[in-house]
Amino acid sequence: MNINYLVSSISRQTVKPREPHNLFKDTSKMDSPTSDASLKEQLKSRFVGKTLDQVPTPSVILDLAKVETNCNGMLEATEKLGLLWRAHIKTHKTTELTRLQVGNDKSTPVNIVVSTIIEAENILPLLKEYQSKGRKVNVLFSFPLFPSAASRLADLSAQLGPDSISLMIDHPDQLVSAATIAHTTGAYPPLVFIKIDGGYHRAGVQPSPSFATGESTQGDSSHPSEVLIDAVLEAEKQNKCVLHGVYIHAGHSYGTRTDWAALGYLAQEFQICLDFAEAIRKRSPGHKLVLSVGATPTATTIQHPSIISSGDNNNNNNNNNNNGDSSVQKLKEFITAQSKRENPFSLEVHAGVYSTLDLQQLATHARDSSLLKADDIAISVLAEIASLYPSRGKNSTTEALINAGCLALGREPVTDKGSIPGVDYSGWGFLMPWGGNLTSNPTPGPDFPRVHPGWQVGKVSQEHGILVWDGKPEDEIPLQYGQRVRIWPNHSCIAGACFDWYLIVDSRSKGREDEVVDVWPRWRGW
Which residue in 336, 364, 492, 342 sits closest to 424, CA to CA? Predict the structure, then answer.
């Protein structure tokens, strides 16, 4: 986590780097993160009060107003529907944004998801703070358990207490590592989610076809999912773990391109989890289980006005398509049916990138334009124009060099789902309408990614980004050498990972929208 190379570009005065992670570090001392606190104060002294015209480029920027709006929207929707909420913190890897995701002043349980153990180790002081205020906490390590993770997770379990650590299991062999945690002195049997492959094929066990028909019974199949259920229940009997629930991630919902179509994926997620959970209960009657569903496109669809209000499907929404209306009804019926069961399953929603959003999320049209638009994207990458190349672009338009390539923006595309390949947006970032004449740069609208006029990043290499104009040559907005630009990235998680901290601005501060009001250090490593 050496950040000296970045600090040297800020000031000749040295900022003390963060302490590197040590695999053998005594986590009992992790409740006093003096190095991170010291780093934050040093960064604030360098940046707070400066404007975006005065900070180094490239830098990554978060708009506090938009982050808070995005986070509050999920908290309000899950509360209204009586759903459990689990915030994924991998997108930003910061303490400050985690507070917003879980509701810093609430009394509800603090359930979070991490993709790397270092996220859990760094968020430990905040979780202890919440425990001291009477809030229950639980950290789910979302990567299917591998052997070397066990000792660090056991340390976290010892620090946080019973039922504080959850694991993702999708193969029986992983239970050996789970048992290692349970048998570590001071640690506790971990909670276990069985990870289900719902069609994304990244991780998870595929459900037996018999689950959907209700025919699954103990011992009648050698299907991997049934073998896994039996293995987890046996490990639970031996006090090696506690089967907590089933978990699914509809990553393929990123491919939706029409308003509210992601609702269909959400309904599928719940149904797959329900079928799987019923198969567990046939082996273990009455077993308490959590059905955890989500990905930002599916999770955010619970904000549909007809779901969170008592009105009908026409309430405050004129853009619903048939898919949305049908899925709304299915979801409402599903939630209602679970609430009326004698021994209901607990319903949980999880998501992460919703907090910042990005161009990938905008392209999904998971919600209609009343709830999801370009102006809701909270993250941008600040860059400078380093050179201009008149007439080099398409139709003799200008191209411009910026000092932000794939090492600042990432290199993950917005998947081309257009009926004619190559027509939809295929760039690496889109210029915000910000700064001087660029305030008139076209904003991606309801037809994005099919329609995408304006300045965008058309090519990237490591440090180089090339701005290209999409549109009529006569409409091209002139650029100048040294001009600063802000770029909405394709994928917030990847773009953020290119930097050691976020510079925070607040668009609610009229006349001071570009002033840095805080700095949020990110955690690095694994």
Answer: 364
